[in-house]
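Here is one record:
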Amino acid sequence: MPISPRRGILVSAIAVAAALAVAGAPAAHAAKKPAIKVSGGVTQPVFSYQDAIREYVRVESSVDADNDGKKDLIRVDIIRPKESGAGFKVPVIMDESPYYDNLGRGNESERKAYDAAGNPVKFPLFYDNYFVPRGYAVLDVDMDGTTKSDGCPTSGGLSDVLGGKAVVDWLNGRATAYDAAGKKVKASWTNGRTGMIGKSYDGTLANGVAATGVEGLDTIVPISAISSWYDYSRMNGTVWWKGEEDGLADTVDTDPPAKCAAVNASMATGQDDVTGNYNSFWDSRNYRTAPSPDVSRVHASVFAIHGTNDLNVKPNQFSTWWAGLAKRGVPRKVWLSQYGHVDPFDFRRDPWVDTLHQWFDYWLWRVPNGIMKQPRADIEAGPDKWVTQSDWPARSAWPLNLSPRPDGTLALAPSAGTATYTDTEQDEATVVSDPATAQPYRLAYTTAPLKQDVRLSGTPTVSLKFSSDRPAANLGALLVDYGTDTRVNYLGSGSGVRTLTTEDCHGESTAADDACYRQVVTDTATSDVNVVTRGFLDAQNRSSLSHASPLTPGKTYSVHWQTLPQDYQFKAGHRLGLILLGVDGDVQYEEDATGAAVKVNLAGSKVTLPVVISGTPSASTAAPFAAKQTWRGPIHVTLPRQPRLFK
């Protein structure tokens, strides 16, 4: 049954002191009970960050990931207002992460720091500096098997998720925790309402914990987060990279290698790098459809942030999760940027802090600030140009079919004919260069110049009718924007941002933990061509991701697959291109080309784009193209490779 949006949320009652009359003495007034202060629809910084309580506990998980015969204890570092306690219970903002003692958190790779007694004195990122003075507790949780927690990391496996769930359970009185002295301790200082937040692996854990349906998790804010680990390493049977699951676990685990060697070996086998098939190993790391975690169990509200040009945690991780949330009726909000794997604190800092503040105030302190009455989606339409809309994809988007033709054009009407490419590995700069010249390693098709702007909003689908001269073949498609423009430089070294030497501050500081971070600006590049989105299919997985079916050489097959989702504006005068190829060496780092000759039946092939064009979808408005013109396109294209950023 769908979840109805929450209604009637009221601000928590703010207690005032009661006058005490003492017989035979003048009336006296008791000190005011601690309470949040709300002004302008948001909580105000009325609690001391300097004097906040800093402590840690170890929460007992329900699993034994390192197989030592004892349930794993999860280290939880806590900072909360000194006034929090039985008389003033506060909500929790929680960042569960595997990165606190290795890669670090944020643009400046911050790590935790501790005093001589082992208590935390530095919490990475600004969450503690900003929110503790406003009446929140902030918890930095070491994921199972990392930093000061027991266990072994399992790269998205159930033990990773259940460690975070155990913390939410403890905050709501359903799990056991021990203090620094080893004594059982209750979270008597919290009202149990919890919000999880984090980027990349941290946000992935938020997705996973929410998908368990745990009570007390009221909201999550997943940033560039995974919802299915198969799609993190694979796409439709093709391999992004090999050795990812055991390799990532080894990266985040700073314990001696022997401790988790057996667990890592099991992951190396389970991920099945040889075939790229989906199996039970990946099913246990799928938070969308597995029995548990499963998106159908999510009742926490979701504020998702993702870069549509993120080639690490690719945007289909967001779009498929988003669709599941929508089907469930989960209260939700989204920001979609044109950056790569970048935190909104580093591309839209002030609006991000303000919006996040309103979000947590609404869902955790129940402040009626109108955040849920705002448009659901913020979309970056160009460098630092943001628009809002009621949902994503745009509700006005409709399907536009474009077909490749023998003359190299991409047009509304299909045409008879065939064309052949050889399945080899090529970089993107090579395959998008000189599109009007035939090349054996790709097929290139372009529209005439656009007469008006055409916006892509959603997930394109490629339909191909083909045959192969070998039992295996890779099928790839790039959607390309041919036209000079200044765009977010998402392939650059900063994935679209550039870090400055100046700082600004958000929150309060101590000598050990300041609230100031280096400022970041958008990095742009002016170019003649841009790869808008990509999609790939191992033809042996055309019918099933779990079972490969070799091709019969010479036999014709019809296949369909989705590219990565996108929200992008093709400008008037530009040309839209479709490139068909084998292996994209810039993103399919570990896929092997087959050398197959792939013959494409053009009459049975097309790309379907969800587009927004002014006017209504009719024969006239569905043809925003000028007359055909002689055109060769950019001849020598240079494209960098987006860096792979884990954190």
In short: Residues 1-29 have pLDDT under 50 and may be disordered.
